[in-house]
Design brief:
This protein is α+β, with helices and mostly antiparallel strands. 16% of the residues lie in helices and 22% in strands. It has one domain. The longest helix has 14 residues. Bound molecules: zinc ion.
Length: 89
């Protein structure tokens, strides 16, 4: 059985899409989406829909680690990271 996949080089990542998993004030799943340039990821703050903080535990350590990791590995001369993503029909 053949499979269609998408291959995405880490260095091709320029925009990050963040999906809110929190609840709105009336208890509904928020589902807010924010797209930011990778370089702006560490400046991410509140969800535009529910106003909750999008940063895990209220600080930016994981966003900072992700942004720094992507930026560093994208420039690596020894190896290139590529994601293989199954394409669903
Ligand atoms: Zn939200």
């Amino acid at each position: 059985m053949s499979e269609t996949v998408l291959r995405l080089l880490l260095s091709e990542l320029t925009t990050v899409r963040v999906l809110c998993r929190q609840k709105t004030k009336d208890g509904q799943d928020c589902g807010g989406v924010v797209e930011v340039p990778l370089g702006q990821l560490i400046r991410l703050g509140a969800c535009p829909i529910c106003q909750n903080d999008l940063r895990h535990t209220g600080n930016d350590q994981f966003y900072r680690a992700l942004a720094n990791g992507i930026a560093g590995l994208s420039k690596d001369q020894a190896a290139a990271i590529e994601f293989v993503i199954p394409a669903k029909p």
